[in-house]
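Hey, quick one: can you model this chain's 3D structure?
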Amino acid sequence: MNRATPSMRDFAKRLIAYETKGNRSAVAKPPLNFPVCEKLRPHLATLIGKNGFHALFSRSLALASAEVSWLRALHMKTDGSLAGLEELHPPPNADEWLEGRVVLLAQLLGLLVAFIGENLTFRLVREIWPKVRLNDLDFGNGGKK
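Sure thing. Here's the predicted structure for all 145 residues.
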């Protein structure tokens, strides 16, 4: 099993926290979607193509499903969005939602780093979220990016 590394989880948590900052309803009642992944989707599709995104995200979902069981109920639609969220019974509680979102995003980011490199991954993230603080994350290279 390819578990999401702690550093990728930190990276994912930071992006999710930034995306939900100021949105109290997202904290009180988790959204039935993955906003950070949705924001990444068009940028990744431009970079690696729709089929490349589909393959990358499908693999991320498979890896994340091994860690978070309720993710197994999800699947990708042809447009690259996730389906199956509405059918989850019982729905995950707020902590389970957050954990699933973190693990899925961490797997996606980890695969991105593996395929396009750390610098290009960070550049892509900076384009989408220019104000997110990332320079203190350490991916085993002494924090040098």
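One thing worth noting: The mean pLDDT is 84.
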